[in-house]
């Protein structure tokens, strides 16, 4: 058993059974060892941003880490933006970052860099296995560390000689950390405050947005308390048969209007809400004047259990208001995001997974699918676009029996378009939609809000994607995924109906501009 | 004048006149200010790795920094791998990294991250302009810092409020640092050592590989001294009418064989050579036993001047051996890298610029173009593939009168394929070639060398790009660049002849597998 064997066996023993990889020379021992450990599923990604986003998608769907395999510091950097999103999502994830042999570092060969320095801002845990014998124990430690709480990235640096040298043993199986329970006294105190408030709101994030938390939130709503989620959460259980909490609005002034008169904000697995960006003369902190914000616990607690306890303490009934199944009629005429949302709502099957990197098209589709069949909605947690396709890769590998729908702005999709090749290669049941408005639409909106003048010719040129127009059908076909272009609601509805009933990769270019 | 105006005017005053950008909301003031400063050329890139590689290409060709415009820490990360290559190339480059407004950071909004932490490993200089008044002076300081010596990345963090607030003045024009001269005494001493050595070699890197350094190297060769370059240098002046120094071989054992018996290695703007990677039982340090390695100066010196002084001290003649123009016959039959090299040698015009990210196809083409018309060869300095297309973008923007040829392995090209859209948009005179062997060929070679067993099915799956095969003509056509596929030497020669005589973007898929 060499160090690479010890690593992969230890990872598998600890439940890490998918590896999203873009290896180089220093990772060849790991690659070779994959042939000796059938429990680990290797998935090749043609760019590291796909690998890290896929690992995030896997982690969000399974609650356990996948690993990435990255080529030294530069490979890590390529995956960094989606690791930022994963950090914000609280997703457990283990990065295996290859490095030069320990004795080779001193020569500062071209690929040498400060790997630990690169990894630090986005990692809960960074260690380097300086000998083959350290590999197994550190691998187990990395998996355990990735659970947090809250979850996040653990980055294990693997020098080439630690991989190829003989290892005396693999690492142990370590227990998964248990999330903290909120004390009964704190629950009771919070229940009293909620009852005493004139206009309270409960704001939840993190793991509260899964099925159990949403159900408890419904009970709180039935007891008369408004429950909201953060604007962007890692995973939201929603659709027919589930309670639909409100969602904190994206633009600060709208959020403040929505929260007018609120005198108590109870935070569960989240913090005081803030605007996504700052703008001159607009609020940053989205807590109304005179409103008290109090936390029941941050992302390290068991939020769903806290919500259940709070509902019990408030004497909330077990029956919560849930959304009825209410599928819209077939949309007709010119295509827009609401009609796209209607078509999606009509056709997506039970337990679909939505990977949302749709930017300006996202909210209309989110609203349109409120009464669709039950599904999970995965959001852009860290604001780094280019998450939508990679996340879908990982979700589909994790959940082969569920339909995955990846929704992407055209600007966002271009970031990690390489992921479509992996979808084709692995024959994943992913339907990718790109909203081709041929512009960074959100920036046209944001520009005025930041106090910048109306864009002149030079500025417009930095927001425009229409010269030349990307031919998505051609581009995506080149990556091995069959693609269709839809310019009307009828075409889109037909394409969606086909994609949702036919397993395997599909791609739809939705022409919006 | 707001902070963004102060920034752009100061950059232009200090010679920074190209901005490779992928902006977001926090950069909108910079974008708006571009309309007020016509000296700055903005170039939109659809992924930050394209922007940073393009800035590297600009810097290598002009010797002055371009700037990037990046969206917070995640945007920086996306550009990180090509910044690693730029650092290794010693290219002056200024990153402008947008950030949240200073007062907004405390709320830790989704895109918040440790920007300075991300930037540190790859930057000579990192500062944040915490007020609008600091922007201009820091911009001037950043430009100056980017020159080194040696050059590298200066990273200026620009909080949104420092951009939108009123600034009292722009920054100064700062002088460009002058590189250190090697003392006459050191030159004379080195000349004596060279004369006393039985089998000396002079190894040069950095700025020595430009026209002046290569010419001086030719004089040293004429005086009887072997001159070599590092395996990978930022920019090498070569072709007909120029001296052709030897190149340090990539594989360590071959390099050691090549250096057998060398008793003195004189280093100029480089360090003791090391293998690109470590392998079990193979040498890391590529200095033969008993050979003394002595440095005339690192990358901070004026290497070309030192070489001229050394040639003078050795009494070398002014006339140096130069390569004759010797163009090969038209290649015929099945396509391989040597025939591709022949076709390129035949057709590339005077002063072409080659951006080489061709991996296993690179060396045969390099060898085949030794006697082609004079040209500059830009190499993969940091080993992070995905440099070839972006670097060509920047070189073409910098040198609109020169033909740029971008050579890419298919695996490498997929990293930053988005750059082809920018080539189309800016109508750059770039011919991009992708070598479609549908495999990470280099890894197949490296795998055995690292002591890993022959790849089994799982390992093979991580080296293979052929399932599905990427249809490059379709993919690249989707990005707006006309593309042709060539499966024979005749087809390739015809396509190259056309591309080299017709301005504007061209793309050739060279079928190699």
UniProtKB/TrEMBL annotation, chains A, B:
InterPro entries linked to this entry: DHS-like_NAD/FAD-binding_dom, THDP-binding, Thiamin_PyroP_enz_TPP-bd_dom, TPP-bd_CS, TPP_enz, TPP_enzyme_TPP-bd
Record flagged with keyword Transferase: yes
GO molecular function, one term: acetolactate synthase activity
All residue ranges annotated as the Thiamine pyrophosphate enzyme TPP-binding domain in the record: 369-509
Domain Thiamine pyrophosphate enzyme N-terminal TPP-binding residue range list: 1-106
Any Pfam family matching the protein: TPP_enzyme_N
Keywords assigned by UniProt, alphabetized: Thiamine pyrophosphate, Transferase
Keyword DNA repair among UniProt keywords: no
Superkingdom of origin: Bacteria
E.C. number: 2.2.1.6
Family assignment from sequence similarity: Belongs to the TPP enzyme family.
NCBIfam families: PRK07586.1
The protein's name: Acetolactate synthase-1/2/3 large subunit
């Amino acid at each position: 058993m060499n160090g690479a064997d010890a690593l992969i066996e230890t990872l598998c023993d600890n439940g890490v059974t998918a590896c999203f990889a873009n290896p180089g020379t220093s990772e060849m021992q790991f690659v070779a060892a994959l042939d000796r450990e059938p429990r680990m599923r290797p998935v090749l990604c043609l760019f590291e941003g796909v690998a890290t986003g896929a690992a995030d998608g896997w982690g969000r769907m399974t609650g356990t880490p996948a690993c990435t395999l990255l080529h030294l510091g530069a490979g890590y950097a390529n995956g960094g933006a989606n690791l930022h999103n994963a950090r914000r999502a609280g997703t457990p994830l283990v990065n295996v970052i290859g490095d030069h042999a320990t004795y080779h570092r001193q020569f500062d060969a071209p690929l040498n860099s400060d790997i630990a320095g690169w990894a630090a801002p986005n990692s809960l845990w960074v260690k380097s296995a300086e000998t083959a014998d350290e590999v197994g124990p550190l691998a187990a430690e990395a998996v355990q560390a990735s659970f947090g709480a809250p979850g996040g990235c653990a980055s294990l640096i693997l020098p080439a000689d630690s991989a190829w040298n003989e290892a005396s043993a693999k690492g142990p199986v370590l227990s998964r950390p248990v999330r903290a329970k909120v004390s009964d006294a704190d629950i009771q105190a919070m229940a009293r405050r909620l009852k005493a408030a004139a206009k309270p709101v409960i704001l939840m994030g993190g793991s509260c947005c899964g099925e159990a938390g949403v159900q408890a939130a419904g009970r709180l709503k039935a007891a008369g308390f408004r429950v909201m989620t953060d604007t962007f959460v890692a995973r939201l259980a929603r659709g027919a048969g589930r309670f639909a909490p409100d969602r904190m609005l994206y633009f600060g002034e709208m959020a403040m209007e929505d929260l007018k008169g609120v005198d108590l904000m109870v935070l569960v697995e989240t913090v005081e809400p803030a605007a996504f960006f700052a703008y001159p003369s607009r609020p940053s902190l989205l807590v109304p004047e005179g409103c008290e914000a109090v936390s029941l616990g941050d992302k390290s607690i068991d939020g769903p259990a806290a919500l259940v306890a709070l509902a019990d303490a408030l004497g909330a009934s077990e029956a919560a208001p849930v959304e009825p199944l209410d599928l819209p009629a077939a949309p007709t005429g010119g295509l827009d995001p609401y009609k796209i949302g209607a078509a999606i709502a009509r056709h997506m099957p039970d337990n679909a997974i939505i990977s949302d990197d749709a930017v300006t098209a996202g909210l209309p589709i989110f609203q349109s699918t409120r009464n669709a069949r039950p599904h999970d909605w995965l959001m852009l947690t860290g604001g780094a676009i280019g998450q939508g396709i990679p996340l879908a890769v990982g979700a589909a590998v994790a959940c082969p029996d569920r339909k995955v729908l990846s929704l992407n702005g055209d600007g966002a999709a271009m970031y990690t378009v390489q992921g479509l090749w992996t979808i084709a290669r692995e024959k994943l049941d992913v339907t990718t939609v790109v909203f081709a408005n041929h512009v960074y639409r959100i920036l046209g909106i944001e520009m005025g809000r930041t106090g910048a003048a109306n864009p002149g010719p030079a500025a417009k040129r930095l927001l425009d994607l229409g010269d030349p127009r990307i031919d998505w059908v051609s581009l995506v076909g080149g990556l091995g995924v069959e693609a269709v272009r839809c310019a009307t609601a009828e075409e889109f509805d037909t394409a969606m109906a086909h994609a949702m009933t036919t397993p395997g990769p599909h791609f739809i270019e939705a022409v919006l501009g």
